[in-house]
Fold Threonine synthase.
Amino acid sequence: HPFWPGLIEAYRDRLPVSPSTPVVTLQEGATPLVPAPELSRRTGCEVFLKVEGANPTGSFKDRGMTMAITKALEEGAQAVICASTGNTSASAAAYAARAGMTCAVLVPQGKIATGKLAQALVHGAKLLQVEGNFDDCLALASKLAIDYPVSLVNSVNQYRIEGQKTAAFEIVDVLGDAPDVHCLPVGNAGNITAYWQGYREYAADGTATHTPAMWGFQAAGAAPIVTGRVVERPETIATAIRIGNPASWTKALAARDESGGRIDAVTDRAILAAYRLLARSEAVFVEPASAASVAGLLQVAEAGGLEPGQRVVCTVTGNGLKDPEWAISGAPVPVTVPVDAAAAAAQLGL
Ligand code: F0G
């Protein structure tokens, strides 16, 4: 291809599409795999960041949404619905707009980042703030999709998983083989399921020689997979993964166990420390939930659970601009100066 055509065209032979499928794309995918020198230094490993915030709506959700909306259009759907902590709704709204479809989104009231709310609204979604958490929103969206003529585009929709598995393909295509360890944040557990499927497919046909250990990380206040129990009132500053009853729970356990991996909890404090380290040292601005993968990697490394010399990929799932509140809070208040070089220089300590 003379240009990147989007992930459906790029991986057409590995996706459930036919020549007549009406592809809905915003040229998602082909995101950067950025070397992370500071994380590599701290862990003694070769660490890369899969920067999914570089997708068209700023998160990995676009990979699943190009497939889900394409298939919904192929099947004749006129409306789609999703529950969301923000990114899914932003992505669904954009791809539905592109396809000329109506998009309904259900979000937990007061618990999604402002940038994500703005995206759903600007793309013309019909947005309802539900008096409940994400798990309540998903139950409601699923019921509406059964009782009314509207297609559900949450990651319980297998086409979402099919699209999202292409991130694993891209990593192997760039590195020449699978990494040894793959770290990612876990919320509803669709993405860890998708990566594991992608890595297995590439290993099955010999494109990769092995599969990585899948390391998933949940926020400590929303870690049902770690504790083995539904969390009735999940709490974390990482609102994207504020989920107490993940839809793909058993698939996440399978990914962990079949890959010889782990699913651990990371505190909000560790998430924010990793968030700041990513921005300051690696120059990659992510949203807080995305930093859970890096917080988890550092936590395991500090506990001696990471063998040095391995190749590690951390997926950073969403763009920092979606949720700037955490970048601004704690930072010094900017100083105001007159239009005067001496005054500016004095303030800058030059
Ligand atoms: N990181 C970000 C930025 C997310 O938005 C999500 C999920 C995850 C990680 C976790 O991925 O659910 O596949 O385990 N966001 C969903 C949403 C729930 O509605 O946008 P997961």
